Amino acid sequence: MKASRSCFACQRIDSPYYSVLAAHLVGPAGRVAAVEPSPDFHQMLTANARANVRAVNAAASDVPGRLVFYLERSTNLGGTTAVRPHTVESSFEADSASLPQLVTEEELAAARLIKIDVEGAEAAAVSGLVPILPWLRGDAELVIEVTPRLLAKQGRTVDDVLRPLRPDFTPTDWPTTTTPAATQPPCVDLRRRAVARACNGDD
Question: Are 162 and 142 in contact (CB under 8 A)?
């Protein structure tokens, strides 16, 4: 990732590690727009962020509104999701909007990488992104982690997430794994070609 390019960390309900790493990779001339709904993770991100990171405390979705997020177990903070689990240890609310409403036009125009890791809300996040896909730079990459189990609870499938990308990103591979969350390999990327990783964590 070159220093003159911008990188997005789209709503990662997890440690801000990837946003901080991206800030280092793009260098001082690059920019990172990090969308994080969790107030705790947002605070952690702002406390550790570099000058080239702009943190947004909100959730990427398809329409403006307010979402409730649930944590099933405190031992798996990365499992925080807007899809209500069987048991709930804690919860919080966050404002939601489409990604183009949460980041600036300049950030979108310069975006080299858009990362989406939203624990079951992939269809809504992608739907909100679709209208601006034709205007992304030609070498833009998408990195999307898809969770079939949580999609199924909403009556959706992995194809519901990936189908809207096809007019602008040519699909070359759709790998699917059932690797437990604790041992998941790194996500694969999409670059005007569409590749996503589907995984099933613990129920």
Answer: no
Distance CA 112, CA 8 (A): 8
DSSP type of residue 89: S
Establish how many alpha carbons lie within 13 A of residue 92's alpha carbon, considering only the half-sphere containing its beta carbon. 17
Residue tagged 């079939």 (tokens)? 148
Distance CA 10, CA 103 (A): 10
Classify the phi-psi angles of 192: left when phi > 0, otherwise alpha if psi is within -120 to 50, otherwise beta. left
pLDDT in tens, 60-81: 999 999 999 999 888 887 789 9
Q: What pLDDT does 90 receive?
A: 94
The Cα 53–Cα 36 span in angstroms is 12
Helix, coil or strand: residue 176: strand
Q: Which residues pair with 194 in a beta bridge?
A: 171
Whether 32 and 7 have beta carbons less than 8 Å apart is answered as: yes
Question: For residue 26, what is the enclosing H or E element?
Answer: helix 17-26
Per-residue pLDDT tens over the stretch 155-173: 999 889 888 888 777 655 4
* pTM over 0.85, yes/no: no
